[in-house]
Amino acid sequence: MKVAVIGATHAGVFSAKQIKAEHPDAQIDVFEKNHTVSFLSCGIALWIGDHVSSPDKMFYESPESLTAQGITMHMGTEVTKADLAAKHLVYKDLDSGKEQAADYDKIVITTGSKAIKPNLPGIHSDKVFDSKNWDNANALKKVTPGIKSAIIIGAGYIGAELAEQLSVNDKDVTLIDGLDRVLAKNTSSEFSNVFESAYQEHGVQLALNQMVESFEETANGIKVNTNKGSYEADIAILGIGFLPNTTLFKGQVDMLGNGAIETNEYMETSVPGVFAAGDAATVFYNPTGKYDYIPLATNAVRQGVLVGKNIEKNTVAYQGTQATSAVELYDLAYAATGLTAEAAEKKGLQADSVTIEEDYRPDFMLTTTKVKASLTWEKGTRRIIGAAFLSEHDISQAANVVSLAIENKMTIDQLAMTDFFFQPNFDQPINYVSSVAMAAAAKASEN
């Protein structure tokens, strides 16, 4: 079996490794236009904030390691043409310019995503930085120690982390977003309000509900003009979001409107023998029961493994995702899974939610701290569709617990009565996950 894997970040790396594990005799060609693989871009903010032990450890695989595993790596090579039905690829070595062509039995599309970069005046200034790949990370690491100020555009996870890390390193930071609150697509207002207060306490200027219109270079840096004002700094960093990097395959496979490639539960596209995974593909989103586009490394890894297991025949079906995620800002840990009530409404679900706040362990302990916990459920069925937790205590695994509950279609009543241990070093007699579920059940019964 001759397999082409196009792209080698997370989905591509795990696809190639799993195909080789399942089919040791397969010939696997991986095409990657960059010279690195498996870069953990989620660590960019931590690196520029001096919280990374070594940049080399931001990669969990290398071209050399994959080659040693029997996988043929075509680094610095871009696939320029693809006839998916015929399984025919044309690819170019970006250093020499030499083009070649090859035919395959199977093709795996793991081309990932591309950063959203609107065609605004001045956006291509060398004082406007991207925050997506290894080259972007190096550029930021080189410039940020010498700056005094920065403008971050986009207050999702990436922009939020960049703003936090630069502010704790004594930079003047302005955080701009088109929505009316930080982390608006990730949190409910109850949680984003906490983070907004933390930003303000650390001197971050919040420019929310504003759309960027242009960039202008100044004598000392860059000016960012929005529909409500202008802001100046040494540099600007884009963290607006991502879109599937799938233009090459347009019109050949079924896609969502944004270009995300649709697959079945075995990661196969509408073209037999062609698979897709990671940021280039859709995910099955369990809270809604529908396919969606949610670019996360965790989704990419699991989908890549499934490609390897199903490359020859349907073996293991995709279990879907809850898009569980977490972030830590100013020692505040936030972890969430599934939908907020606001997001559920936008997805067409009738939902309700409840939020509680309580100490995570008994008050007789010498120290404790508050946990804010929220649970979202579908009205009528009482099926859990989301949860969020916020605390200075590490509450990250609570989101994983509720993720498992969502995947297994549990109700708020079932979660309320699920067995969790009690030990005063760790929690209350009623764990805060149980406590918020009980509050949800009580509220649902009242309504």
How would you describe what is shown here?
- This protein is α/β, with parallel strands linked by helices.
- The chain has 11 helices and 25 strands.
- It has helices at residues 10-22, 44-48, 63-68, 134-143, 157-168, 189-201, 297-310, 341-346, 396-407, 412-416, 432-446, and strands spanning 2-6, 27-32, 72-75, 77-83, 88-93, 99-103, 106-109, 113-115, 128-129, 149-153, 172-177, 205-208, 212-217, 222-226, 230-233, 235-238, 242-244, 274-276, 283-285, 290-292, 325-329, 332-338, 351-359, 370-378, 384-391.
- The chain has a 5-stranded parallel β-sheet.
- A hairpin with a 5-residue loop joins strand 24 (370-378) and strand 25 (384-391).
- Helix 1 runs parallel beside helix 7 (297-310).
- The protein is globular and about 70 Å long.
- The N and C termini lie far apart (58 Å).
- The model has no long low-confidence stretch (mean pLDDT 97).
